[in-house]
Automatic annotation (TrEMBL):
<feature type="transmembrane region" description="Helical">
    <location>
        <begin position="296"/>
        <end position="316"/>
    </location>
</feature>
<keyword id="KW-1003">Cell membrane</keyword>
<keyword id="KW-0472">Membrane</keyword>
<feature type="region of interest" description="Disordered">
    <location>
        <begin position="1"/>
        <end position="21"/>
    </location>
</feature>
<keyword id="KW-0029">Amino-acid transport</keyword>
<feature type="transmembrane region" description="Helical">
    <location>
        <begin position="60"/>
        <end position="79"/>
    </location>
</feature>
<feature type="transmembrane region" description="Helical">
    <location>
        <begin position="215"/>
        <end position="236"/>
    </location>
</feature>
<dbReference type="InterPro" id="IPR004841">
    <property type="entry name" value="AA-permease/SLC12A_dom"/>
</dbReference>
<feature type="transmembrane region" description="Helical">
    <location>
        <begin position="350"/>
        <end position="368"/>
    </location>
</feature>
<dbReference type="Pfam" id="PF00324">
    <property type="entry name" value="AA_permease"/>
</dbReference>
<dbReference type="InterPro" id="IPR004840">
    <property type="entry name" value="Amino_acid_permease_CS"/>
</dbReference>
<feature type="domain" description="Amino acid permease/ SLC12A">
    <location>
        <begin position="33"/>
        <end position="466"/>
    </location>
</feature>
<keyword id="KW-0812">Transmembrane</keyword>
<protein>
    <submittedName>
        <fullName>Alanine glycine permease</fullName>
    </submittedName>
</protein>
<feature type="transmembrane region" description="Helical">
    <location>
        <begin position="374"/>
        <end position="398"/>
    </location>
</feature>
<keyword id="KW-1133">Transmembrane helix</keyword>
<feature type="transmembrane region" description="Helical">
    <location>
        <begin position="257"/>
        <end position="276"/>
    </location>
</feature>
């Protein structure tokens, strides 16, 4: 959707329900959007990464997830307010272009594209690694097969993408709900090997609730890890241009954020830490595997391996989907090569998806050849890229609300609770997370990469401005 079309929409009392001329097919139904929203909040950060957080902060990691979950809810409601004002596939870059400026839209679109390319590289490689648990097959072969299958699925139709995400998310949800029910049964009925020792008092009787080495400071240092676990929750915004009924479906999906976090993160960790004392956890060991071992359930490792394999494929599938849409949005607004605007008959961005998939394949090869620290640094940088999208969502919501309150734009039908102040709080929280990253040696390198990427984008924008002044100044026409 172009900024020229935005002017026409602002004359009405309500934002348009769709983006005329985008060319996408509105094929994603309520069932698929709901599971995309749920799946976006559940990934390897919970199934694998939580073990490191528990060993560092103890039971207080639960509080960190709850607080971060509140911030994520503010971010998603801010996004929801923007989506109901103008539901478009470009989402974050479109809003940044309209409410901040053309350069902000340029940076946001390319940065979010980079985030998913790098994420896709790491996740398809991780999926190939998980396959070696069952079969002794070359890692590169599994990565190749997974990439081709997901690439093909994304080219066939958006509906097939939605179906894959639905079932990927269903596996993750079933695993977490199953773990919660098993742990609840052990606490109440006392069965399994953990039945004699399981107790909710484990949450405070082993050094206290803030049992980390540095107390509350240890909890604060896990915030970066916790926020990273929520990356991709905003993906539901990219689906806006292809939802059958965005004004009905998207608010419902966004409003499920609180209970998703309460059940899948806070609830799951309360149950697991009640069955398994937090002192039993180690970095790199899944809390789900540790819980299964404590129960004497030997097949637990295989189950968790299947779940994290699913989570990795889900993330790569999302990367295939979002990168093509972001490149097409940039191209439609004159901020990317025109070739990326092409769609297949089924309404999928052929060239953009193909280009992104090709880069993912190169990344897999590089990771296979040189699996060293340099690649890990690139992965760390991806988290900064993801948080940039959140920052843009919050800033755009603040600017939109001010304009709407002055009567310059139509009011959204889905206003964010807390209005501007909730977004200001969320921005301050993200700032705190960035500060803690600078204090952590393992994550500090991500902050070094951000200015380099910003410089590259600034140079690219200057080149664009000299060759295509209209594209560089596109947002000024809105």
């Amino acid at each position: 959707m172009t900024s020229v079309r935005v002017d026409k929409q602002h004359d009405g009392n309500e934002a348009a329900d769709s983006a005329p001329g985008e060319g996408y097919h509105r094929a994603l139904g309520a069932r698929q959007i709901q599971m995309i929203a749920i799946g976006g909040a559940i990934g390897t950060g919970l199934f694998l990464g939580a073990g490191k957080g528990i060993s560092k902060a103890g039971p207080s990691l639960i509080l960190a997830y709850a607080l971060a979950g509140l911030v994520i809810f503010f971010i998603m409601r801010a996004l929801g307010e923007l989506l109901m004002y103008r539901p478009v596939s470009g989402s974050f870059s479109e809003y940044a272009r309209e409410f901040i400026g053309p350069f902000a839209g340029f940076v946001t679109g390319w940065t979010y594209w980079l985030f998913w390319v790098v994420t896709g590289i790491t996740e398809v490689t991780a999926a190939a690694t998980y396959m070696t648990y069952w079969w002794d097959i070359p890692q590169w072969l599994s990565a190749l097969v997974f990439t081709i299958i997901l690439y093909g699925a994304n080219l066939i139709s958006v509906k097939l993408f939605g179906e894959l995400e639905f079932w990927f998310s269903m596996v993750k949800v079933t695993a977490i709900v199953g773990m919660i029910l098993i742990c609840a049964g052990i606490l109440t009925l006392g069965f399994s090997d953990a039945g004699d020792t399981a107790s909710i008092t484990h949450l405070w009787d082993l050094g206290g609730f803030f049992a980390g080495e540095d107390g509350i400071a240890s909890t604060l240092m896990t915030l970066q890890m916790v926020m990273f676990a929520f990356l991709a929750v905003e993906l539901v915004g990219v689906t806006a241009g292809e939802s059958k009924d965005p004004k009905t479906v998207l608010p419902k999906a966004i409003n499920t954020v609180p209970w998703r976090i309460a059940v899948f993160y806070v609830g799951a960790l309360i149950m697991i830490l009640s069955v398994v004392p937090w002192t039993h956890f180690k970095p790199g060991v899944s809390p789900f595997v540790a819980a299964f071992e404590e129960m004497g359930f030997q097949a637990g490792a295989a189950i968790v391996n299947f779940v994290v394999l699913t989570a990795a494929l889900s993330s790569c599938n999302s990367g295939m989907y979002s990168t093509g849409r972001m490149l097409r949005d940039l191209a439609l607004n004159g901020q990317g090569p025109k070739v990326f605007t092409r769609l297949t008959k089924s309404g999928t961005p052929l060239i953009g998806t193909t280009f992104s998939a090709a880069l993912m394949m190169v990344g897999v090869w590089i990771n296979y050849q040189w699996p060293g620290d340099a690649f890990n640094y690139v992965v760390s940088f991806a988290t900064i890229s993801g948080m940039w999208a959140w920052i843009m969502i919050l800033v755009c919501q603040i600017r939109y609300r001010r304009k709407a309150d002055r009567g310059e734009l139509p009011q959204s039908s889905f206003k964010a609770p807390g209005g501007i102040w909730a977004s200001v709080f969320a921005l301050a929280f993200i700032g705190l997370v960035v500060v803690t990253m600078g204090m952590d040696q393992d994550n500090r390198v991500a902050l070094y990469g951000a200015p380099v990427w910003g410089l590259l984008l600034a140079v690219a924008y200057l080149v664009l401005k000299s060759r295509n002044p209209e594209g560089a100044a596109f947002a000024k026409r809105s």
